[in-house]
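Q: I have 423 residues here and want to know how they pack in 3D. Can you give me a structure?
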Amino acid sequence: MMKTHAPKGTYDLLPQNASRWRYIEEQIHKIFREYGFGEVRTPIFEHTELFQRGIGETTDIVEKEMFTFSDRGDRSITLRPEGTASIVRAFIEHNMAGPGAMAKLYYLGPMFRCEAPQAGRYRQFVQFGAEALGSNDPRVDAEIIALVVNFYRRLGIDDLDVNLNSIGCPECRPAYRERLIEHLKPKASQMCPNCQRRLERNPLRLLDCKNTTCQQLTADIPLITETLCDDCGSHFEKLRQLLDLSGIHYRINPRLVRGFDYYTKTVFEVLAGDLGAQNALCGGGRYDGLVEMCGGKPTPGIGFAAGMERLMMVLEARQLMPEIDERPHLYLAPLGEEAQKIIFPLCIRLRESGWIVETDLQGKSLKAQMKAADKLGARLTGVIGEDECRVGKILMRNMETGEQELIDVAALSEYLQTVLRGS
């Protein structure tokens, strides 16, 4: 019979790596708590319309990358390709917009996109991110960027490349859109098919094309920052001042537009130099019209999203991942049925007290059990054979020093406290 493999673009997270992921997840929860964000867990699938409206029908994600199917009620359902639209839907559905209040929300979980797998990019991937809804103050933009920079720095990634741009708003972007079309139309025939299609429908997306020819053809485009309205220009200037005051280094990237239609004003990306072509650790921006597009009241917002897989690639490549010590405190080795009757409930009681305890459940020989204890990295082993059973004792062995001593079974918990916790 043929082996069954995980579907293309997915992977199994095995025990030796899961502890590292759990460590990073703990750091994610920690920093969001410090910045006052509350966790939201949304369904893995939503009505397809949410993403069509929220992400934009002209984006690559909606046009080519979503996992969409009909359920038994013939409703169109899509596995979530990103987190923002779902958070906004939950924000509206649960009336989280109080008068004069802000909602600061974060998420962590699997997303799905039907795209070609490559280094750090999968069809099922884990994404974390945050959304701050209810304020158009540039201080919120600066706080989001500061949170991101702080998070990566505390993991040891210091050489961050923060790219920043403003893509205007519905008031000033149409004028830039016309300038862009006028500038690029004479070159349209030389562009890739995707960009030819985008030129009239969504010309800003041309700036995000990875085709080398298209990048050369758009190298001399007019800059969007030259056509910002007073409000967008002032917002961008105040954001830059706040980042300067906070000591957060950045560079203006006039080609940065991000991949979703909902962005307005601020957009940003944070890059790492050792990811090759896929060097973005995270990205985000402001979306002051998204809540209204999804059926809510006009509500300004800004957020970001980051990939766990790319982060893990950087941490492992730079050897920044700390050693996660999950070795057992104790391995208990029973020899014979009477010893098993003593050791089994003893393991349960010790685990209830917080000790990490392993034991043999296969009837192995003492030699095989000692090998198993050594392989697991147990700090102590305890052996109970016929002689120990008769006198209520357990032979304790320090696996590092090789020292052995006989103690009362009833005193084992106190012994562990003294030897392993120093009290």
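Q: Anything worth noting?
A: The first strand starts at residue 38 and ends at 39. Residues 71 and 77 are 7 Å apart (CA to CA).
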